Each structure stands twice: as C-alpha cells, then as structure tokens.
C-alpha cells in the first residue's frame, strides 16, 4: 500500500494516460473500422480491394512495428513535430480498426440478403441501405466481439509507454528504476488495468441489454 500512496500522483497520471489513449484510439478504430467494413461489402471493386488490402496489411503487421513506423517515419516525412500521444493514437487506432472491420463485416453478413435487395428495390442507395437497414441489425451481433477488441486495445496501449507516452506501463518502469518493489508495482498496475477493462465490459453489457429489450 505504501507504494501506491507514496506515488499516487504518478499512478493517477499513468491511469489517466491509459484511459485517454484507449478512448482516443478506440474512437478512431471504430470510425475507421466502420468505414473499411463498408468498403469491404461495397459494390465498387476498387473500394473492396482497398478494404481487403487495409485489413490484410494491418492484421498481419506486428503492432510494435507500426509504432516504429509511426514514431520514426511519419514525423520525418509527413508531420514533423507531431505529439507522441497523437502518434500512439494513430498506431493503435489503425491497427485495431482492421479487427473491428472484420467484426462489423461478420455482423453485416448475418443480415439476410433479401433486406438489402428490398431496400435497393425502393430506390435506396448503398450507403442508405447500409446505414438505415443493415448496420442497426448487425449491431447486436457485433457488440460482443467489439467489447473483446477494445479490451485488447487497452492492454496493447502499454506499448505506447516505450514511446514517450505517460501511461501505466511507463509508470511501472519509472518506479522500478527507483528501486521500488516490482511485485507490488505490478499488482497495482494490474488492478488499474482491471478497472478499465471491467468498465468496458460493463458498458457493453448495458448496450447488449438495451438491444435485447428493443428486440
């Protein structure tokens, strides 16, 4: 307990850093995942090809390699002086978007094809059909895997600590370098991650119950 109380400001800063990284990169991943999933089921061949290439490339690239590209290539070529938080958000968001895309696409495939055909027969565009007819029904199927993906994102955010970001893993390195008991440090760090992941699970359970009532 002394480790926690003596370094409470550092733990608080690290906890808020992890929450911020998870929230920002999670929002980016969901937006990109929905967009790329739309590309994957689009009737336009170039969009389908782009969506397939996006998922194939990012799902099969180690996350650490994406961080290296984000921190050592992107600032040199595109955006010099960009903050480490933004770079970490981009790396985590892009990587996670490929998994969210596949979860959304699998949910879209559970909606009967006849509903999309009926929507097109009354003059709805592809985007309108996807937004109004297909995605609302696919949401029930997508929520459980989406919860697991965001929990994995929370744990993946620990990599950002090695790239000049203040988060829980970075705090553990700081305290370990000061000679504090590593076992107690890891215990408090693990409890902090559990709080975040339980919060994500709770939010998605509430969403699932809401949709069950609506059904």
From TrEMBL:
Entry keyword annotation includes Lipoprotein: no
Protein's GO biological process: amino acid transport
Family in the record: Belongs to the binding-protein-dependent transport system permease family. HisMQ subfamily.
Name this polypeptide is given: Amino acid ABC transporter permease
Chain segments annotated as coiled-coil in the UniProt record: none
Membrane topology: Multi-pass membrane protein
TM annotation in the entry: 15-37, 49-71, 77-95, 141-163, 183-207
Subcellular location: Cell membrane
Recorded superkingdom: Bacteria
GO cellular component terms listed in the entry, alphabetical order: ATP-binding cassette (ABC) transporter complex
Keywords, ordered alphabetically: Amino-acid transport, Cell membrane, Membrane, Transmembrane, Transmembrane helix, Transport
One Pfam family linked to the record: BPD_transp_1
ABC transmembrane type-1 domain mapped to chain residues: 15-204
GO MF terms held by the record: transmembrane transporter activity
Xref: InterPro entries: AA_ABC_transptr_permease_3TM, ArtM/GltK/GlnP/TcyL/YhdX-like, MetI-like, MetI-like_sf
SUPFAM superfamilies the UniProt entry points to: MetI-like
Main subcellular location: membrane
